[in-house]
From TrEMBL:
The chain crosses the membrane at residues 56-74, 123-150, 191-214, 226-246. PANTHER family: ODORANT RECEPTOR (PTHR21137), ODORANT RECEPTOR 19A-RELATED (PTHR21137:SF35). Coiled coil: none annotated. It comes from the Eukaryota. It holds the Pfam family 7tm_6. This is Odorant receptor 85b.
Amino acid sequence: MGPIINCSMQFFKYTIILWRRKEIQEGLHAIRHDWIQATEEERLIFRSKMKIGRRVVLIAAFTMYGGGLCYRTILPLLKGTIITADNITIRPLPCPSYFIIINEQQSPIYEILFMLQVMAGMASYAVISGTCGISALLVLHACSMLRILVNKIKKLVNKSDMSEVTLQRKIMDIVEYQMKIKRFLKNIETVTEYICLIEMIGGTCLICLVGYCILMELENANTTAVVVYITLQISIIFCVFILCYIGQMLVDENYIVSQASSTINWYRLSIKNMRCLILIIAMSNYPMKLKAARMMEMSLITFTDVMKMSMGYLNILREVI
């Protein structure tokens, strides 16, 4: 059941990536343009966020490939050859399958199918790493833009000797930058909304099933299988955590922008310029968040809800089976 759910998840996620490739290209072009136009101070902010994203995605890819390849190679080889009561020899495949036309137990058909299933697993792990990487890249760039916006707001009233024309240009620049961030976040939402939904639903099911497998192998005292399943469980949990973590980072950065715009030293400005701040404050108080199909907000609270739900389903599974 687990491999079927995982393959279905990656198939739908890859389909979404192909379907939204235009939006992804627009996002990448926007990132490239921002890097070209950025000052040295802004590039430091971009680099700090990108380092976080790179580390997170590398850890996710390492754990997923490590746990997945162990699951598809070590576990079937560990089971060895099975002889049934009818004296039929069965060599287990990484993903047990039923073939009508061919006999999968004959050589070299068994070896070919074994390698094809391992390669299919690697392809699915590439989709997992790719979707996590794209989501992290886009969201963390948006976080960098929000941090730059905070700096622009703080610098707005720092200098008391600023001319009226310069001040109005800065206000106009902040408003335009806010609109730019809103458009970029709207593009991110279009790309990631169904990826997040699939990851939340599928991740809940997989955490539950892999947890049940761990309990079964513990009862059988199969230490190697327990280690493999724990590694696989960590990789699944970490993939869910990545999307929730970057969503939480976006929430935190939006909160910082809201605080900066609300606590600005507006009394240093003229009445005319004070009115211009109303638009900035209003836009800052309506942040866009990373959501799964515009229903479920991606945050650390959501991650804890997914874990609690998975453990609840696991308890039900233990009672029923």
